[in-house]
């Protein structure tokens, strides 16, 4: 119920449209059975040769004073001994009015429904975009996409087309019921026996469907995860020749989805035949009673026929209620994961009066920094009491065995994660007291993975800075040694690259990413050296571009190359989350046995000796 009210909260901005939409659909609901009720006067007055006069009574069995004739609603010129004209006018006028109200009411309700869904989807996307890095580690991409697409779609169906149909049907139901009672008199009370039966069966079916839908949605998410992994990681699948294995995995997941869908269909489709049987038994019974009523003169034939048709009409919305109920339950089921995402508090938040970071002047200080990742199995302590200063203009290399916590340490600087204990300060200001935007503006990060968007070269370089002049983009590309190959591309800077665009070599991708970092012009640069090598020519171009990028910046680099640690002002050794040595290459060779071992294993072992002058780093620029 809480979720229902939360959804209703999204309708508030569209209250006016919803209000008028509901009123118009209420009119439709009234006109619909009234039109059918015309069968009574048609049989009793228009088609009855013995009927005289121009009075066409519409609703029998109403208390005295409530009686009204159709003539009252028809222009006076049509009166006279002309019941046909009165009924024909009423029929056409009602139909036209119903059509207009139906059209505008459906439009207004859908307007509100689609409007609220657009807001909900935007809100969800905004929340996901603003989530911390840990959110994306905890939730697989396919599951997030499934919620954003499939779950939102289910809610959308329920609050747009199904809702307007539901409103129309509920009003039709109410007014038809009133007319059935008016025509049926004593007879109509027989109906009430069936109401609880219908409601109970609909509720029972709906409740099961909610659970089933959740399972169905989970199965869709499972398929989306497999799709995402195997399509983005297609090269790995090919390299390991695991196509068949992946196809079988996909088929198994598809079969689970099929089973979930069929279970849900079985439950849903039982409701219609069940109610059909109930209704036909009721009608058969009523014909028998009706015959006696007509014979006893308590009912007219026209009245009874109108009553029967209205009864059929009443049965229509009742039958649809199970479908509406199912659809709303499905939407409620789908809204669980939407609201789960909306309720996640980002781990990294800005304090209310955060300060803007001014120019970076002096140093970044890690003071007794401890960090633990939290996951389902509990906490995993990765960094322990790290004390470190990175001075302005310094090139600080970070080395250590795999899993030592190097990436974790550098990810704390742009606040992808917050420290668990201690603090990190820039020029004396705790990172948590600064605005995230101003902090991240000061940092360009370059990771092993190069991410390019499906956009033009220019927009990829100017990512996050759409208004920057073309000349500056080209200047950055020149410094990144990317201008020449960009100019050789079919549309130069307007060539679309990225997932679906023009194919680039590894080195070219890296240089585009370096250009992006150069254009960002952040004073602090975080690099993560790639362990895989490029060919010699590409390598030297990338390293020259990198040298340009590093110029005049404070650089923290996770080093895998000897040349990098040689160039570094200082090198930090990180082992199992603790700093076990700081110094220059020569100092550490003398003092640190770990460094000596790393030197032999990692640096000499890669075949990268001092003869290779500069680091090779794959790039992902920008924050
Ligand atoms: N998002 C995460 N959630 C939970 N644990 C993580 C996460 N990222 C890393 N870890 C764990 O933290 C430890 C340190 O990882 P980290 O990536 O910082 O090491 P690293 O020194 O950079 O290693 P490498 O050189 O191999 O990249 C590892 O044990 C890793 O399993």
TrEMBL record:
SMART domains reported in the protein's UniProt record: AAA (SM00382)
Molecular function GO terms recorded: ATP binding
Protein topology in the membrane: Multi-pass membrane protein
Residues annotated as domain ABC transmembrane type-1: 19-330
ABC transporter domain segment(s): 364-601
Origin: domain of life: Bacteria
UniProt keyword annotations, A-Z: ATP-binding, Membrane, Nucleotide-binding, Transmembrane, Transmembrane helix
Stored Pfam families: ABC_membrane, ABC_tran
Subcellular location: Cell membrane
Residues passing through the membrane, by range: 7-31, 83-101, 187-205, 265-289, 295-315
Protein's recorded name: ABC transporter ATP-binding protein
Organism: Acidicapsa dinghuensis
């Amino acid at each position: 119920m809480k979720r229902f009210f939360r959804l209703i909260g999204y309708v508030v901005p569209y209250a006016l449209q919803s209000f008028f939409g509901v009123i118009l659909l209420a009119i439709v609901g009234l006109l619909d059975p009234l039109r059918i009720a015309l069968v009574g006067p048609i049989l009793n007055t228009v088609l009855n040769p013995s009927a005289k006069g121009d009075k066409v009574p519409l609703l029998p069995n109403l208390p005295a004073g409530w009686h009204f004739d159709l003539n009252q609603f028809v222009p006076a010129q049509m009166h006279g001994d002309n019941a046909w004209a009165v009924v024909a006018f009423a029929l056409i006028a009602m139909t036209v009015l119903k059509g207009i109200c139906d059209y505008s009411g459906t439009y207004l309700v859908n307007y509100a429904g689609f409007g609220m869904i657009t807001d909900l989807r935007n809100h969800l996307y905004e929340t996901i975009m603003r989530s911390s890095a840990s959110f994306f580690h905890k939730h697989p991409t396919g599951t997030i996409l499934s919620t954003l697409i499939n779950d939102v779609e289910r809610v959308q169906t329920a609050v747009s087309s199904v809702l307007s149909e539901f409103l129309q049907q509920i009003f039709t139901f109410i007014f038809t019921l009133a007319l059935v009672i008016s025509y049926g008199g004593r007879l109509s009370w027989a109906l009430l026996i069936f109401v609880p039966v219908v409601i109970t069966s609909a509720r029972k079916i709906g409740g099961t469907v909610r659970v089933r839908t959740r399972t169905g949605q989970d199965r869709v998410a499972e398929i989306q995860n497999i799709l995402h992994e195997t399509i983005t990681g297609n090269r790995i699948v090919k390299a390991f020749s695991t196509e068949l294995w992946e196809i079988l995995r996909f088929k198994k997941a598809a079969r689970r989805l099929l089973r979930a869908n069929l279970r849900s269909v079985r439950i849903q489709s039982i409701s219609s035949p069940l109610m059909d049987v109930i209704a036909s038994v009721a009608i058969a019974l009523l014909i028998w009673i009706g015959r006696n009523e007509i014979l006893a003169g308590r009912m007219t034939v026209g009245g009874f026929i109108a009553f029967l048709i209205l009864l059929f009409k009443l049965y229509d919305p009742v039958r649809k209620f199970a479908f509406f109920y199912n659809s709303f339950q499905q939407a409620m089921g789908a809204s669980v994961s939407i609201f789960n995402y909306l309720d996640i508090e980002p781990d990294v938040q800005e304090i209310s009066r955060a300060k803007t970071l001014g120019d970076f002047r002096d140093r970044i200080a890690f003071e007794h920094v401890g960090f633990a990742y939290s996951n389902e199995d509990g906490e995993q302590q990765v960094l322990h009491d790290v004390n470190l200063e990175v001075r302005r203009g310094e090139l600080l290399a970070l080395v250590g065995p795999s899993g030592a916590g190097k990436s974790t340490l550098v990810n704390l600087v742009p606040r992808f994660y917050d420290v668990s204990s201690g603090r990190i300060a820039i020029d004396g200001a705790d990172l948590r007291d600064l605005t995230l935007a101003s902090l991240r503006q000061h940092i360009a990060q370059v990771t092993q993975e190069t991410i390019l968007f499906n956009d033009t070269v220019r927009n990829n370089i100017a990512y996050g800075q759409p208004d920057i002049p073309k000349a500056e983009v080209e200047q950055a590309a020149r410094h990144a040694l990317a201008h020449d190959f960009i100019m050789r591309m079919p549309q130069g800077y307007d060539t679309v690259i990225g997932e679906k665009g023009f194919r680039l070599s590894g080195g070219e991708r890296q240089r585009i990413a370096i250009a992006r970092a150069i254009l960002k012009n952040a004073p602090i640069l975080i690099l993560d050296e790639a362990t895989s090598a490029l060919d010699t020519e590409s390598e030297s171009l990338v390293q020259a571009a990198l040298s340009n990028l590093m110029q005049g910046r404070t650089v923290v680099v996770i080093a895998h190359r000897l040349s990098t640690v040689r160039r570094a002002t200082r090198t930090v050794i990180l082992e199992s989350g603790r700093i076990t040595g700081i110094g220059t290459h020569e100092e550490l060779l003398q003092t640190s046995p770990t460094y000596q071992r790393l030197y032999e294993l990692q640096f000499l072992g890669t075949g990268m000796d001092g003869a290779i002058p500069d680091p090779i780093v794959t790039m992902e620029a920008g924050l």
